[in-house]
Amino acid sequence: VLEALSAHPCSTLDTLTLNVAQRPGSAYIPYPPASYATCIDHLPVHHLEMKDIFLQPPLKGNLTSLVIRLRIDWIRHKCLTLDDILNVTGHNTRLERLTLTHAIRPQRATRPAAARFVDLPFLKHLDIWQGAEPSAFDLLTHLRFPSHCIEDYKVFDAAVNSAEGLSRALAVALSNCASSPVLESWDVLRVE
Q1: What is the DSSP letter of 3?
Q2: Of 153, 130, 39, 5, which is closest to residue 80 (Cα–Cα)?
């Protein structure tokens, strides 16, 4: 598939879903060669979904939906650092959906290289699941949602494991949604 996308780019491709179904007992599927890392960068894709495969998301500004779900441990070292995510979202500020499931590269907690902020004024759905350092909230401190669009805000973060970390995480989450009607309609706030 990646070879076909590289050799014959489709100028009308709106949605691209890549899913590597790695079943227990099945033959090992090798990771795509580095030559394919940017093969989708030239496509006019608006909706990109990658499951257990990672390619560099396009930086053309076309994306309105970015979904990256990585459940397999061996692929996680290939995914995005905090700086990479800020770069991708900074180039795709029209995102309406951002889903990152174990898609932030495991590393010791660091701050992004530059103290930058990315405004995502059209974001409606945010769903981040992070099982290791860095915390998803290290990313969220650099994202701004300046409009009243947020409808769905879900963050699961196993890296938050202290009272201080939880207080910081709640402060970031509430700050992100301060101007959103989602706070007005919350009936339940669950903290685990």
Answers
A1: H
A2: 130
At 144, phi and psi to the nearest 5? Answer: -120, 140
CB 75 within 8 A of CB 51: no
Q: Which residues pair with 126 in a beta bridge?
A: 98, 153
For each of the chain's 192 residues, which pLDDT tens digit applies?
Answer: 667 776 766 778 899 888 876 655 555 555 565 556 566 777 889 999 988 887 888 888 999 999 999 876 666 667 788 888 999 999 999 999 999 998 888 776 556 555 678 999 999 999 998 877 778 888 888 888 876 677 888 888 877 777 777 777 777 776 766 655 555 655 555 555
In sequence order, what DSSP letters do the residues of 78-136 get, joined into one string? GSB-HHHHHHHHHH-TT-SEEEEES-BPP-S----SS---EE-TT--EEEEEE-SSSPH
pTM for the model: 0.80
CA distance 144 to 82: 15
Q: Which amino acid is at 107?
A: Q
Q: Which residues contact 60 (CB under 8 A, 6 or more apart)?
A: 41, 42, 44, 91
